[in-house]
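Q: Structure for this?
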Amino acid sequence: MSTISKKDQSLFLRRKVRNGVMLSLSFTSALIALIPLVLIFVYTISKGAGYLNLEFFVEMPKPVGESGGGMANAIAGTMVLVSLGSAIGLPIGIITGIYLAEFGNNKFGFMVRFMTDVLSGVPSIVAGVVAYTLVVIPMKHFSAFAGGVAMAILMIPTVTRTTEEMIRLVPDSFREAGLALGIPQWKTTLQIVLRTAFRGIVTGILLAIARVAGETAPLLFTALGNRFWSTEIDQPIGSLTVFIYDYAKAPFEDWNNQAWTAALVLIVMISALSFAVRFVTRSRYSEK
Amino acid sequence: MPRHFEMELDQLRTMLIRMGSLVEEQIDCGVKSIIDGDESLSALVIERDKKVDEYDNAIDQQCMRIFALTQPVAVDLRLLMAALKINNELERIGDIAVNLAERVKALVPFRAFVKETRLSEMATAAREMVKAAIDSFVNNDPGLAKKVLTSDDVIDSIDRQMFELMVGKMKGSKDLIEPAVHVVILSRHLERLADHATNIAEDVIFLVNARIIKHNADEQI
Amino acid sequence: MPSSLQSPKISARGVDAFFGKVQALHNVSLDIPEHRVLAIIGPSGCGKSTFLRCLNRMHEVAGGSMRGEVFLDGEDIYKADPVSVRRKVGMVFQKPNPFPTMSIFDNVAVGLRLNGLAKKSELNDIVERSLQQAALWDEVKDQLDKSGVSLSGGQQQRLCIARTLAVNPRVVLMDEPASALDPLATAKIEELIHELKSAYTIVIVTHNMQQAARVSDSTAFFYLGKLIEHGETRKIFTNPEKKQTEEYITGRFG
């Protein structure tokens, strides 16, 4: 039957065993890596789902001692802060990304790229401190705007890098084709190159938003927080993350429960955004 | 350059050169067999014509293959076109050698008569033309080819003279009609031989200089 | 060759082209007559693509520089606005590159739209006419809003040709337009070139000599950045003047 020598056979067996060991090791590692994610979901759902009701979404927080209430203002606040951050951070990030990709192969571009990378490593609390110094102190009070600035500082590096990378991914053949049609350089960049890179850039934007929506530290001394309904830009504003922070460390059980629920809502919102990212990138393939 | 393509062109040239030598040989033997009245030599010539036909076919096949499978241009293209034409001419020259050989038997009783005519001289000249034409192909020598073109006039004039002479002889004596007619026919064969040599020379000039000078031998090369 | 009654459509005079310090073209002078097809042949790296790109000022886009003059209908294109030059001299590239985020219709119309060359009402007609000229209309007329990249390679290339024709150039440059295509698609492109000749002037760079022989009226042979020989295609392929030309076309080098 077999024409394999004894020596080859034992070698073969050893390889099989080694292969099996490595496979099980990597499989186990993957399982272990999943554990935190699973735990988070399980805990949040089990602890928070119980208090999830319509009240949570439409009511204001009740005074201490009274049970019930909701976090309508916090939910609205998170959305306002993210919108402000986007309004400031996205244009800066995208335009910087375009500049770096199309015209940034020089010393200046190198410097900008370097600084952006440094900025992406800045701890989020530091971004909050910067926003405090730049906005809160001159304005003499906390505000949603300051929170938005902190958000923007955190968004810019991600958006810039993704935009630059996505534009670089656009093959030169499209730029050439555009120029060869007699389309001026700036129009080619905006209407053809940018359009081609659009899906990738949107992914980058969504990822930046998802990250920033879950930040707490920078909001602590910029937007501060607000137990009352407010969407004014020049006033302090509540947010889901700060609320979770406040309610989780409070001595009231009712509040702790609400914190879990808030955490659940936040996670669901961010997960929904991630799914939106997947959806946006998937439809690229359906065109074929 | 794909080497096998180069090889195929070389093979083609070699076949043509060999066919040329064979055909020269045939002419030599054909003429000799007439002059010497050598029937066994004439039989050999007739037999060997089969080989000439083999070469003819082989060269045609080779050309067709090269045309179909490669896209020859410029000098390669001209080589193939020249090869086909020269092939044709050589085969006809071979046929003339056979025609000469076939007359040997009939001429046996008239050997003396034949010796007195200028046939021998004509045959030599024609043979030289064939040889020169083939050499001009072998050596890619258009100068030599041009010389062949000018020699054709000489043969034509001898042919005309022979015709006059034979007509005279026939008028003189009825017994001389038979041999005279043979001689006239032989003379025509040799004149035709010279024409074929001329055609080969023109094809060589086309091959080397890419100029077609058929029907216009006065043109400068 | 160029009829003495007509001045050439494009005239290159003493063109030197550089990539930084490296000289890619040496003193190339060439006349291209109107409504004819010129094929440019030569081994890899001989400068044929570089020369082509000097004819529509795309060479400088790739970071190159040049000396010399190129006249289009008598005007030096290097003294004119490059954008307007490129509208008059279109280019089709080796790898078909229809814009992936646009439909077939939008691809053809993009040059018109972004250059403001046509009114909205005229677009339909121009797109149809361009696709007809590119021999693609019948195949796509019912699916004009399908993505440009959903077509086969040969169709994509014809789409790119339609896109180029839509802006109504005077000259169409083609850089090895069929080298990425299968033989059937290649044959369609070659047939197309025959048909386009009557309306445009065409310059095609090709590394396929049989294609050059089939498609062009005149041929230019480049080697190491120099123009070696330029003449009627028939003559170049039966009896070229220069030995180098003969060696190249019989495949003895390159």
